[in-house]
Amino acid sequence: MITRRSFTLAAVAGAAAAAIPGIPGAAAASRPVVVELFTSQGCSSCPPADAYLGRLAAREDVIALAYHVDYWDYIGWADPFADATYTTRQRAYRDALGNRTLYTPQMIVDGEADAVGSDSRAVDALIREHLEAAGDARPVVRVEASLSRGELHAQIHDTGMPGPADVLAVAYDTHHRTEIRRGENGGVTLDNFNVVRAIRKIGEFHGPGRTLSVPAKPWTQVEGGIAILVQGAEHGPIWGATKVLVA
Prior knowledge:
Mean pLDDT: 86
Number of strands: 12
Strand content: 35-45%
Order of helices and strands: EEHEHEEHEEEEEEE
Structural class: alpha+beta
Oligomer: single chain
Low-confidence stretches: 1-29
Strand order of the largest sheet: 1-10-7-6
């Protein structure tokens, strides 16, 4: 499993703007919608949202990620996948979205709209709204990712991004099954999907095109994949995303 550690950018080079093979041009649906679930194994309301995220993870037009927060660990069960880093990300979203409180389960769609994670109807509506949005309503940044020669590479091409962005790498395990022995879910076996094990900023993007490369080894210790997110600064909207599977 991945260990949570910091790493430095190994190489950053500007790249001439170029078409990325296999990705359509400016159509709004040319990139997947990113759905981020904030959850905890210690939260009795979370299992339905965890199961729903598993269904979303099977979709080609969605990148589904589960961040396990640590603020429920005190009630009897310490979530083995929880990390204060993910709680910090959720707090930043709370402030960016103008929410008043943290809660689980929470799903955030493309970094700019949220709903209760177990309310599949509401989340489905947000996903559909984002897939159908066009032009200025949903800027598209084309992203490709690959693993080769010991490095993780991200190729980014701007097709309408309204401002500067952070480039994030998010490593996740595809599936975990855990027997919960204490707490609100005591006696239940939980299935968790696309469990985030690390998130790091690997660079910034200002357009029109760029290639980023970082050492792959910390990321390839996951049993799943790596998502690349191009997200507006200060936890703004996500304008581009892709993923690469780890063999």
